[in-house]
Write a structure and sequence with these properties.
Distance between the termini: 40 Å
CATH class of the largest domain: Alpha Beta
Number of domains: 3
Number of strands: 23
Largest sheet: 10 strands, mixed
Number of helices: 9
CATH architecture of the largest domain: 3-Layer(aba) Sandwich
CATH superfamily of the largest domain: Alkaline Phosphatase, subunit A
């Protein structure tokens, strides 16, 4: 199978070399050019974190069915990474690792129900707390799905702990995912637009309230769904879980692009005179895909393709605001995805029928949930006009878990012992397409895999988990059949398991996985 890679020509920008962050003052970093020393304010940081976007799902990475001009513009102005990875093949674990610098398995992090307690210990260090130490204003706007509160959340009162307790100065989010109740926005600690005379109650155990459900009223649905997604109907979409009350606070899915983008723009406008970090985790292109009429039917690939266009537009709006405020050149932008692609994920939205010859995985094997490369290998673009030394394409091996330690280096913060223990400082590679990064990398799915040089080793799956999805995915991927080993130099699409030919290599890599798991 041929891997589809669009080569972006490497462009050499004006050379501005990065000095050691130990020399930084609280509000400045030191840079140097060939002429003289220059002091500039600390860079803003914007992390665009798309949901379920595959390696091949944007045109600068090979998609030809439609185009993503705004994301492509970032690629042309920055570094396009070809071997960057989310830390896990599903969303909650990858978000957990990004914000903590630790592998999700250390906390048994897995996909959460909509009423789950906060999965990150708010008394421990986090990425936003670290950035605040460096004088940054911090915000998260978009999809959360890391749990809230301590269990048995009362959505009618202050919901805490949550993002604020983790170090975000401002948060505006959907609590879990678009396919899970409660279908409301949460701003800081409170549900937006709630009528206290119509309190919200949420259950994932039994039906509550008088809202229709998908299995009984399919005539009310915009798109039919599987049984897991066939509970409470809100805005013509059946969801996971049941919700009673809170009608005045219900979101409209088609409004997501404007609601989230406007909140991000407002935060940028309010924070433009101080260094800020904006974490912008999209809901798109996660199910249910309900693109606004601006984008519906425009991609030719059904709602999934339309959601990609919507995501691209949102990206462009926020980048345009950075430029309007005159701060784009001094902003480090990281654009990536929380895991690999999935086409049919519970809703029958014609994404399978209309996908045509488009390959969301870009030639790699697997996708969301998978231990194969497309489970975590995702598009990643970095722009930072003031500091990028060499633009273009980079094959550096990078995990999103590395953002924590890399940003600490960027802003001059020394981490405490035991903080972000699985993160590595790959800042040189983020700022220079010619620099290397990791030599080994752990990939999480329903088992663990290890990349080391040309080798990709997938540990056998025990099948001991009660999670039906884990077992289903493991069976589909052949993980019940024992360990797997691939030589990515000659077999990048992982078609030939050569573990029997190289048992010594498999043993060594399994031992290394065991060592990493035991690390404290």
């Amino acid at each position: 199978m041929k891997i589809k890679l669009n080569n972006v020509s490497k462009k050499v920008g004006i050379a501005l070399s990065f000095l050691c962050m130990a020399a930084c003052s609280e509000n400045t970093i030191s840079t140097v050019n060939t002429a003289n020393d220059v002091k500039q304010s600390k860079p803003n940081v914007v992390i665009f974190y798309v949901d379920d976007l595959g390696y091949g799902d944007i045109s600068s990475y090979g998609m030809t069915s439609t185009t993503t001009p705004n994301v492509d513009a970032l690629a042309a102005d920055g570094i396009r990474f070809t071997d960057a990875h989310s830390s896990a093949a599903t969303c909650t674990p990858s978000r957990y690792s990004l914000l903590t610098g630790q592998f999700a398995f250390r906390n048994n992090a897995a996909i959460l129900p909509g009423d789950a307690p906060l999965i990150i210990d708010h008394t421990k260090p986090t990425l936003p707390k670290m950035m605040k130490k460096a004088g940054y204003k911090t915000a998260v706007i978009g999809k959360w799905h890391l749990g809230l509160g301590v269990g048995q959340v009362d959505w009618n009162e202050a919901v805490m702990p949550g993002p604020i307790e983790l170090g975000f100065d401002y948060s505006f989010l959907i609590p879990a995912t678009g396919d899970r109740v409660p279908t409301v926005y949460l701003e800081n600690h409170h549900v937006v637009g709630l009528d206290k005379n119509d309190p919200i109650t949420v259950s994932y155990k039994e039906r509550i309230g008088d809202r229709p459900v998908g299995t009984e009223r399919p005539d009310l649905l915009k798109q039919t769904a599987d049984l897991q997604h066939s509970a409470t109907i809100v805005n013509g979409v059946s969801r996971i879980g049941w919700m009673a009350g809170g009608k005045s606070a219900e979101w409209v899915d088609e409004d997501f692009p404007f609601v989230f983008t406007d909140k991000a723009i407002e935060f940028i406008q309010q924070s433009k005179n101080e260094p800020f970090m904006l974490f912008f985790p999209f809901h798109d292109i996660h199910v249910p895909r309900s693109p606004n009429k601006m984008f519906a039917g425009k991609s030719g690939m059904g709602p999934r393709g339309d959601a990609i266009l919507q995501m691209d537009w949102m990206t462009g709006q926020i980048v345009d605001e950075l430029k309007k405020q005159g701060i784009y050149d001094n902003t480090l932008i990281i654009f990536s995805s929380d895991n690999g692609p999935v086409v049919d994920d519970g809703y029958f939205d014609q994404s399978v029928e209309l996908i045509g010859d488009h390959d969301p995985s870009g030639g790699f094997r697997g996708g969301k949930y998978s231990a194969y490369e497309s489970g975590t290998r995702v598009p990643m673009i970095v722009t930072y006009p003031d500091k990028l030394k060499n633009k273009g394409e980079s094959d550096a091996l990078i995990s999103h878990i590395d953002f924590y330690k890399s940003l600490a280096s960027l802003v001059g913060i020394n981490l405490a012992s035991g903080e972000a223990i699985d993160s590595q400082n790959v800042l040189p590679a983020l700022l220079d397409s010619t620099k290397e990064a990791r030599t080994e990398m752990l990939e999480e799915s329903f088992t663990l895999a290890l990349r080391e040089g040309r080798w990709k080793y997938i540990a056998p799956f025990s099948g001991s988990t009660p999670d039906w999805l884990a077992n289903k995915t493991a069976i589909e991927n052949g993980l019940m059949n024992g360990a797997q080993l691939f030589d990515l130099d000659v077999d990048p699409s992982e078609q030939h398991n050569i573990v029997a030919k190289h048992p010594d290599i498999a043993k060594k890599l399994q031992q290394r996985i065991d060592e990493l798991k035991a690390l404290k």
